[in-house]
C-alpha cells in the first residue's frame, strides 16, 4: 500500500498525479492528512478530503510527499509525520518526494547520500543527498524524488514502476498517452 501525505498548501498536481496513476496501475493508495481534520486545501485553493488522518495509518510500503511551500511548512511542524517517515524507512519502505518535499527528507537525514532532485531553487537544502541537476525524476534504491509540478506525471509513473514493475507502468503511460516532451513547447 502507498500512503500519500496531505497537508494544507500541498501542490495539487504533485499529489493527484501519483494517486491517480498508482490506482490505474492497481496499487492500493490511501491519502492521509497530517492536519487536525481530513479536509485539506491545496496551495492553489483546491480542497480535498483525505481518506484518513495520519494517526490512523499503521504502515505502508511507500510514503509519497507532495511539495508546495505551505505543505512543506506543515510537514516540518509535524512530529507525527517525522516519526512515521523514520518508521517507514526503518521497516524498509520506499520514500518518495517531489518539489520542495525532498528537502524535508534531507533535513530528517533520510536521503543518506542518495542521488536526488527537488525544486531547483531549493537544491542547496539537499544537504545529505547528491543533487542531479539535469534530471526531473531520480530513483536511487528506496528513494524516489521529483523536481516540480511539471514532472508530476513522470514522477507518478516512476512510482508505478517501483510498485508494480516496468510493464505495468508502461501500460499506464500508454493508456494516458504520456510522452516525455510536447511539440511546440520547446
Protein model, in words:
By secondary structure, the chain is α/β, with parallel strands linked by helices. The chain has one domain (2-175): Rossmann fold (3-Layer(aba) Sandwich). It has 6 helices and 11 strands. The strands form 3 sheets. The protein has a 7-stranded mixed β-sheet, with helices on both faces. Strands 3-4 form a two-stranded antiparallel ribbon. A two-stranded parallel ribbon has the order 8-9. β10 and β11 form a beta hairpin. α1 (12-24) runs parallel beside α5 and α5 packs antiparallel against α6 (166-175). The longest helix is centred in the N-terminal third of the chain and has 13 residues, at 12-24. The chain starts with a strand and ends in an 11-residue tail after the last helix. The model has no long low-confidence stretch (mean pLDDT 95).
Q: What is the structure about, briefly put?
A:
The chain is an alpha/beta fold. The chain has 6 helices and 11 strands.
Tell me, briefly, the overall form: globular
- Structural domains: how many: 1
- The low-confidence runs, each spanning 5 or more residues with pLDDT under 50, are none
SS-based structural class? alpha/beta
Instruction: Report Rg.
Output: 15 Å
What distance separates the N and C termini? 37 Å
What is the fold-level CATH name, i.e. the topology?
Rossmann fold
Topology as a string of helices (H) and strands (E): EHEEEEEHHEHEEEEHH
Number of strands: 11
Strands side by side in the biggest sheet: 5-2-1-6-7-11-10
The amount of beta strand, in percent, is: 15-25%
- Considering DSSP H and I runs of 4 or more, what fraction of the residues is helical? 25-40%
* CATH class categorisation: Alpha Beta
CATH superfamily descriptor: Class I glutamine amidotransferase (GATase) domain
CATH architecture designation: 3-Layer(aba) Sandwich
Give the mean pLDDT: 95
Instruction: State the major sheet.
Output: 7 strands, mixed
Amino acid at each position: 500500500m502507498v500512503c500519500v501525505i496531505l497537508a494544507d498548501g500541498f501542490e495539487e498536481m504533485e499529489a493527484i498525479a501519483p494517486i491517480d496513476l498508482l490506482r490505474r496501475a492497481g496499487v492500493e493508495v490511501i491519502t492521509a492528512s497530517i492536519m487536525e481534520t481530513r479536509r485539506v486545501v491545496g496551495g492553489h485553493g483546491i480542497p480535498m478530503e483525505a481518506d484518513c488522518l495520519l494517526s490512523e495509518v499503521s504502515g505502508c510500503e511507500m510514503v509519497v510527499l507532495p511539495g508546495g511551500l505551505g505543505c512543506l511548512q506543515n510537514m516540518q511542524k509535524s512530529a507525527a509525520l517525522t516519526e512515521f517517515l523514520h518508521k517507514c524507512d526503518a521497516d524498509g519502505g520506499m520514500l518518495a518526494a517531489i518539489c520542495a518535499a525532498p528537502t524535508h527528507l534531507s533535513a530528517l537525514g533520510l536521503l543518506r547520500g542518495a542521488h536526488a532532485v527537488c525544486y531547483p531553487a531549493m537544491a542547496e537544502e539537499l544537504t545529505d543527498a547528491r543533487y542531479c541537476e539535469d534530471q526531473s525524476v531520480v530513483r536511487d534504491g528506496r528513494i524516489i524524488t521529483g523536481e516540480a509540478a511539471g514532472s508530476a506525471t513522470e514522477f507518478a509513473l516512476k512510482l508505478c514502476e517501483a510498485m508494480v514493475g516496468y510493464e505495468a507502468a508502461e501500460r499506464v503511460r500508454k493508456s494516458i498517452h504520456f510522452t516525455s516532451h510536447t511539440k511546440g513547447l520547446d
